[in-house]
Amino acid sequence: MTLHTGRHFLQIPGPTNVPDRILRAIDRPTIDHRGPEFQELGASVLAGIRRIFQTESPVIIYPASGTGAWEAALVNCLSSGDRVLMAETGHFASLWHKMAQRLGLKVEFIPGDWRRGVDPAAVAERLAKDKAHTIKAVCCVHNETSTGVTSRIAEVRKAMDAERHPALLMVDTISSLGSIEYRHDAWGVDVTVGGSQKGLMLPPGLSFNAISKKALAAAEKGGMARSFWDWSDMLGPNEKGFFPYTPATNLLYGLQEAIAMLEEEGLENVFARHARHGEATRQAVQSWGLEVLCQDEREYSDALTAVVLPDGHDADAFRAAVLEAFDMSLGSGLGKLQGRVFRIGHLGSFNDLMLMGTLAGVEMGLSLAGVPHQRGGAQRAMDYLASTSGNSAAEPKLRVKA
Amino acid sequence: MTLHTGRHFLQIPGPTNVPDRILRAIDRPTIDHRGPEFQELGASVLAGIRRIFQTESPVIIYPASGTGAWEAALVNCLSSGDRVLMAETGHFASLWHKMAQRLGLKVEFIPGDWRRGVDPAAVAERLAKDKAHTIKAVCCVHNETSTGVTSRIAEVRKAMDAERHPALLMVDTISSLGSIEYRHDAWGVDVTVGGSQKGLMLPPGLSFNAISKKALAAAEKGGMARSFWDWSDMLGPNEKGFFPYTPATNLLYGLQEAIAMLEEEGLENVFARHARHGEATRQAVQSWGLEVLCQDEREYSDALTAVVLPDGHDADAFRAAVLEAFDMSLGSGLGKLQGRVFRIGHLGSFNDLMLMGTLAGVEMGLSLAGVPHQRGGAQRAMDYLASTSGNSAAEPKLRVKA
Amino acid sequence: MTLHTGRHFLQIPGPTNVPDRILRAIDRPTIDHRGPEFQELGASVLAGIRRIFQTESPVIIYPASGTGAWEAALVNCLSSGDRVLMAETGHFASLWHKMAQRLGLKVEFIPGDWRRGVDPAAVAERLAKDKAHTIKAVCCVHNETSTGVTSRIAEVRKAMDAERHPALLMVDTISSLGSIEYRHDAWGVDVTVGGSQKGLMLPPGLSFNAISKKALAAAEKGGMARSFWDWSDMLGPNEKGFFPYTPATNLLYGLQEAIAMLEEEGLENVFARHARHGEATRQAVQSWGLEVLCQDEREYSDALTAVVLPDGHDADAFRAAVLEAFDMSLGSGLGKLQGRVFRIGHLGSFNDLMLMGTLAGVEMGLSLAGVPHQRGGAQRAMDYLASTSGNSAAEPKLRVKA
Amino acid sequence: MTLHTGRHFLQIPGPTNVPDRILRAIDRPTIDHRGPEFQELGASVLAGIRRIFQTESPVIIYPASGTGAWEAALVNCLSSGDRVLMAETGHFASLWHKMAQRLGLKVEFIPGDWRRGVDPAAVAERLAKDKAHTIKAVCCVHNETSTGVTSRIAEVRKAMDAERHPALLMVDTISSLGSIEYRHDAWGVDVTVGGSQKGLMLPPGLSFNAISKKALAAAEKGGMARSFWDWSDMLGPNEKGFFPYTPATNLLYGLQEAIAMLEEEGLENVFARHARHGEATRQAVQSWGLEVLCQDEREYSDALTAVVLPDGHDADAFRAAVLEAFDMSLGSGLGKLQGRVFRIGHLGSFNDLMLMGTLAGVEMGLSLAGVPHQRGGAQRAMDYLASTSGNSAAEPKLRVKA
């Protein structure tokens, strides 16, 4: 067994540090998933999770991890051979693309350099050409966990609306839900995909589909052959707080606690907290003289920051040094970014001092691993945090320039 | 919140009573699923779960509940339009049938009265007619959770072999794995489906596919469009203890503990314990003058017992009375058995005194609910348990006749 | 490590089965015992524990186990050489006697046969002779954990009042508090001693002194040299929710939950539940043809039952057989009762089915150990429980005769 | 309930951050303290705790918090009217002094300025004058939790030996045991007092007396009237792993885990880790231009650092600001230091990044509270930690000068 003296710093961009309140909630005896005590639990989480997605529509809760909820979004609404439009924002967008292809969809993939979000203009441009409305869905990753870039979903919606295109809008919020502002209804999203192990502060094992009326109608008429992921099987029992097959009861205990915690803090405050920590992190990176991967300051992610290492320096060697010396896990570069970037998760159950421990660990690790940098990034973050303390709900005043 | 004075008796046939050791194991901080500490965990559970399935072949661990693993078995090996042979042993066999149909398979369903297991002779007879080998798979439920009937899988295998039929043999062991003897390799099964929340004593949220070389070959050449459930994506990372997408880390902690507990007791002793408790339960039922649903004593389930109520008595009213008066959850009649039977789960983390509390609760409940019966069932079980105590690994000497 | 398949039955008369809610409450991070979060906790438990003792007076909470709270009662109010009156009701009364002697008190010990409680008439008789009021305290054990006899404290108080004797009345409720009706104020008790590990359902490690104004006045003027146990050091900080030295914070989390659970059920219902379980147990013992140690039916303990084994049979051998065969811990005979009686704890977090498991374990154990008895005790308890079910708050209608 | 986003930083010098492994160990069902499973536990912790005290002699484990173990040391060995020599090293030495007086001892208190440890020369000088050997014990606090000063116990012993004085040497290690090197046998200590909630990383509720043969002999012949604290009652049952009255079972589970964790890391490594963190903290304080309370660099505490605020600045206001803004608890100035110093705990379950979070919180707090200081303390600690990383077992090379 690995020896930890003190707490491990789990600063990958998810799974995130699960707070004790949630772990303790999960650590309760499993109950009959067909009994009245469960029914109360089921009704509570099914109602609560809608508030987190900011929707009046149903949210499906799967006893499965996030990748499954991607698949669910696709197989409920789309048929083999359907055309979908995706944008290459990073590794997870690419994986979703690959999944869509494997499920028999025809994917158009708007190319990208993994340093920017979905370009609403490019979406508009492509849809404008699709006079026959052969494109059935536009699929975007809200927060690209591999790059630390947050796409502007509301603007994508506007672009679609401007073209009066009937395609469904599907959005992956696995690493933004409960961390970065997201509004399923207000932004007109048809299917939002979420997961438990990031902003919701739960262990992995639950995932979500928030669905609009339009998506539901599409599912009723079409979709692929499906069973486990089928929405309609879920919706009936869900009305009474039940599920059609065995739910992941203990994770639902945790979900109930997570919803309570987010609402005790207030969603707006949760978002502001993440924004402040994102900004502090970026200022540290800038002070070190390193590059934030994200190129557009409108798209900085407040959930994680991907940092580019200078040429000739291996990000994985750096990460291994940090793990060895300081018992902190940082996120690796994924796909084509492997070895070139590392990622700092600053989302979920988190606060100023955990962030300072994290940034200190990065700065010390840069020294240990011999990565050229300037001292003082942690100091600068500290200055920023001190200057904005007690003001966490306010818009940060200082924003580092891209 | 429901008030419990003392412990709830969760005597449905799963989810079962999760022991404290496992709950505490789960209640540990989530770790980086791409780091070295996880790798040790992953390698440990991937090796250990094979021993539980009694196989040298790979076992896939899904971060999803058991219904998903059914789907995985079908979509990896079979193609839309393929013919499969199933047997109507009860509600879960019927649900699996329904799932297969929804996935586009052509299902032949050997009819049954829900009181017997799969008839090996009927399988042989059907396969004998299938000279063209259009039947691609025979799918059986090992232990029908809805009826308390355990099919004789080894005999089904023999019947298939006798016909030299190349169909794959797929078996659902969701409610038998870790409770009733099951041998994936020795019995020549191609895909075994399992779940976490029964004999493995875990909360729901993990499920399994144990796969033979033949099944793997079938999957490599064919199967349906799939992504989340795809075996080949799993097998590569699994070799090093990793998973292709985020695993349900905390449930894997629990799985590691569950495997340790089963092996500390010894699988043979686990099976003998369940056999003894099954027998004690059936003797109690017989003493009450009630009918065990299972009609063939070779097929009695040692994991649960379904009990038929006399005509004119509602099993659900009886169950509600037991829950109200004694804080015990019993299993309901499912599908066409609703209201006619109740089910006593006696599997998982269980012992003689928990069984006696359970049977006393049933006997008292029969009185409270006005169900005609003879007193003395609990007494008879007690006599049986006392007479066989200290001898739990031995074959029970007395067996009630069907 | 000991292997448990299923739950251990901890049926000693304390420590009792700690419910999950309380274990989980304890399993929270320790906090600063001088900070505002602690202050809320401290204020909450200091107020709540008074309600459990049914007093308006202060209750001292010691970070120490129950034996310490005995000592605290004595050293705060009495001086070396003071005379106290005690009654030999069993092993714990004898231990308290021994402690008093070691602390330099002169103890008069009203003899007893360990089968009856404190005789109010004997107390009255002795006090009547004490014209000079040299007796400074009367010390009684409310519920003798070694014998299963509950003394009639209100009658002792009346006897003292009738004699107009100014001695303090000190009562040990370690194994009755939260299980058997007890009223510190209404019964005019001066110091009540309590502990955490019985009716309060907590692990051992906390103990209590509920103190009357008269006791407080005595302590202010006198008492022995003391520091750790000193009441006055406690009372000041307690007013604000704090403690003069480091409190057992995590057990206080548990205490807060325990108070909540007792009040959710309602203290009257808690007492009625214990009364019903005590009666069921005694009926079982009578059916077995064994003897309840307690000789006076007015003094039957509803928290535990001590059972006399026939001559020539060793109660410890019986207990060892039960532990080995059924994983149940029963209480041993203590002091001069060693080997002659065993004790069944039926207090704390408990319910009908746990009781039936317990009684079945005893009955089966009697068989295994070859102790002569009649079958049917568990059956009789079951009949009694069924006939009184749903009526737990009512006075049990049937009471076995002594 | 207080809302925490992320983990609270509990940086008082005890209770310390309880690691999850220990909390989970405590969160297990309580067992029969007279049964065989307990016996294994008892034997294990009684043997293990000796290794932590570095003694071959018995160690008494009390189910009571640390203040009680002080009292136990005094009442077992000393009689009312005995003379003891103590040294005024700070608040806890003063409290122990007060306790001794209340117990009827005559205390000579070598005066001190609360910025230095026990002066071995002063002890020698006083003992030299005590030709009649009226001084029965010399009582020292090893690590003064109120000041961050570690007395040189081995030198005190040498001073006593040089005078050939037979007084017992009693040492309080409540805040040093398991953090700062301490050798009960090698240093010739007669009674060592310890507690659970500091270096042992447990919640409060256990305390210890490690006793030499000489102390045991003194206790057998003398001591005060006592019962709960009596050593001889403990030693008999302890030989078999049992206790004379109900032990704090669940905290013993935690103790077993704590001993395992300390031994997995290695006591020498534990001490080196604390030394490195102590040094880093002092360098930070020096960089801020603030004063470490401890005046003698030989006596710097590696468990905590007390920091003097400039005149006119209230340490409690500073602490409140830190708690409010950063959810970190720092230790207050105690007794005459109230408002003048704050204390940083850097002991127990701790690591580099937790320390950096802590020091960042202090530095930001100094800004928020308007305490004059120079920026850069956290930066300097970070530089020190980076330069000594991977070398935690080595003697720190740089030590700040007093």
From TrEMBL, chains A, B, C, D:
Listed cofactors: pyridoxal 5'-phosphate
Record-level Gene Ontology MF annotations: alanine-glyoxylate transaminase activity; L-serine-glyoxylate transaminase activity; L-serine-pyruvate transaminase activity
Modification N6-(pyridoxal phosphate)lysine occurs at: 198
Keyword match Transferase: yes
SUPFAM superfamilies: PLP-dependent transferases
Lineage of source species: Bacteria, Pseudomonadati, Pseudomonadota, Alphaproteobacteria, Rhodospirillales
Domain named Aminotransferase class V: residues: 31-316
Species, as recorded: Limibacillus halophilus
Name of the protein: Alanine-glyoxylate transaminase/serine-glyoxylate transaminase/serine-pyruvate transaminase
One GO BP annotation of this record: glycine biosynthetic process, by transamination of glyoxylate
Entry EC number(s): 2.6.1.44, 2.6.1.45, 2.6.1.51
The family this protein is said to belong to: Belongs to the class-V pyridoxal-phosphate-dependent aminotransferase family.
Residues bound to substrate: 343
Alphabetically ordered keywords of this record: Aminotransferase, Pyridoxal phosphate, Pyruvate, Transferase
